Amino acid sequence: MTTAPEATSYQLIDGKKTAEEIKVEIAAEVEKIKALGGKIPHLAAILVGHDGGSETYVRNKVLACERVGFGSTLLRYEDDISEAELLAKVEELNQDASIDGFIVQLPLPAHISADKVIETIRPEKDVDGFHPMNIGRMVAGLPALLPATPSGIVELLSRYGIETSGQHCVVIGRSNIVGTPVSILLAKNLDTGNCTVTLCHSRTRNLAEITRTADIVVAAIGRPEFVTADMVRPGAIVIDVGTTRVADASKKSGFTLKGDVDFAGVAPKSSYITPVPGGVGPMTIAMLLLNTLRAAKGEIYAR
Ligand code: GUN
């Protein structure tokens, strides 16, 4: 186990490589299931509308299923689908025995309540880990389908042998998808946990003063290059969850993906840091696959 040294050289936390390793492990499990004549895990994704970021994420999730040998189904709807229609689609997937788990890509159009949609998903099939049943079970320390991005962060820290016990972790951002659940997981009495966690958000006073006391910084606010070098102490471990598209005429796509951390400024000060892209993002997909495998095997909820 390593602790954050007071050094200026840093190690890149390679989420792309780690996610590949996890996918190889999952593919091996699928082969075993096949050899035993079991049911191949099947993930479905619902995508509403044409948001560029969401299209990319969902495409990558479907490709990842193919890569590990899962079945996958993509259900696309225009952004004028009514809430009632979408809830009916969710109910169909709930009832479909061929589907082990499914996700509804967020954000949804303003006329649809994401909360209602999430609450309609059967907790056993909620491989995003967003349903209040899964969140509640996570908080209570019961077996649950854990949200993919937070568990991906924990997995990265674990696989890089980073000591978390007793460390001060400052999380910036309190979203239901990342900030809130990662702060809960890292505080738990688990192998990669036992952190003293401070959860900061838009109303936090003296943010930089707090982040400068962090051994581990998790930036999950969705504001490009928000965390600057003056906000981190030498030797800190920096986890960047941001993926904001910023216009860039020099790119064929017309945009660059920016993290929440000013990488050029912060990296030389850190001991470990995740890049964007290639850090947390690929781990989210790997953990989604792992949740789908768990759902298919009935590991959390008996089938
Ligand atoms: N939008 C941004 N991140 C996520 C995610 O992890 N799952 C879903 N369903 N939507 C998202």
UniProtKB/TrEMBL annotation:
Catalytic activity field: (6R)-5,10-methenyltetrahydrofolate + H2O = (6R)-10-formyltetrahydrofolate + H(+); (6R)-5,10-methylene-5,6,7,8-tetrahydrofolate + NADP(+) = (6R)-5,10-methenyltetrahydrofolate + NADPH
Any GO molecular function: methenyltetrahydrofolate cyclohydrolase activity
The Tetrahydrofolate dehydrogenase/cyclohydrolase catalytic domain, residue ranges: 13-128
Superkingdom assignment: Bacteria
UniProt: NADP(+) binding residues: 173-175, 243
Complex formation: Homodimer.
Reported function: Catalyzes the oxidation of 5,10-methylenetetrahydrofolate to 5,10-methenyltetrahydrofolate and then the hydrolysis of 5,10-methenyltetrahydrofolate to 10-formyltetrahydrofolate.
Protein name as catalogued: Bifunctional protein FolD
Naturally occurring in which organism (per UniProt): Hymenobacter roseosalivarius DSM 11622
